[in-house]
Amino acid sequence: MGFFKKRSVNEFGEKKQDMPEGLWTKCPSCGESLFEQTLAKNLRVCTNCGYHFTISSGERITSLVDEGTFEEMDLQLDSVDALGFKGYVDKVKAYQNKTGLKEAVVTGRANIEGIPVLLAIMDFRFLGASMGSVVGEKITRAIETATAEGKPVLVFSASGGARMHEGILSLMQMAKTSGALARHAEARLPYFSILTHPTTGGVTASFATLGDVIIAEPKCMIGFAGPRVVKETTHADLPPGFQTAEFMMQHGLVDMIIERKDMRSKIAGLLRYVTKTTAPAAA
What we know:
Layout: E1 24-26, E2 33-35, H1 36-41, H2 57-64, E3 71-73, H3 88-99, E4 105-112, E5 115-122, H4 133-149, E6 153-159, H5 168-186, E7 191-199, H6 201-204, E8 213-216, H7 227-234, H8 245-250, E9 256-257, H9 260-278
Parallel strand pairs: 5-6, 6-7, 7-8, 8-9
Antiparallel strand pairs: 1-2, 3-4, 4-5
Binding site for Zn(2+): 27, 30, 46, 49
Domain CoA carboxyltransferase N-terminal: 23-283
Subcellular location: Cytoplasm
């Protein structure tokens, strides 16, 4: 005869509900489970290994510019289905409802430590921040406004590349944005390109790699085609760290790698330096 009576499962009361969703996030780099509030306070950078999660355009603006100085531009621009691509309009509307954005890039005027700039910030949540005609037009207008107003322009890239739903109209944005940057350079005004994870395809092949200073966040992926496509095309083993920011810096494509927590102060320091040297002489 046993000394202890065996208890049934029912005696323990109602089953405990599952953990609410959204409280914890698993780091894809080190596997650490991160408390969501802690991760948000740390600018969505893993507190264990330093992995930089993709962040929204709103989070980027908040972490970068002087409070209350951001003035959004061209909010009314909307994509049209010029090629009659099946389901494209519905897909765009679904992402608009999901993200609260009109398109995959947010542009506007702002100050960074008191220095006025024009900004274009791509948001990977919106169709992988693919570059369609509206994305290209908004970035071009931001560049042209910076040129007209004599200000630096900063573009934060994060994109899967050209938007296949718009075909050649998407590819034309590569030339349009590059042309605007050429005129900006002729005006002797600075352009900083900041590459975040991932920056690929037609974005990499155009405005993302045309910066006077090219900055990248740690370990972000930078390339044209993906590593699998490159390997299958070249039939060669790829070197360690291929297409990471660190690899690109070692091979001369990237000038600086800056952690997210230092991005605001480092960019402000660069802006103070270049605006002194590019500002027109006093009459």
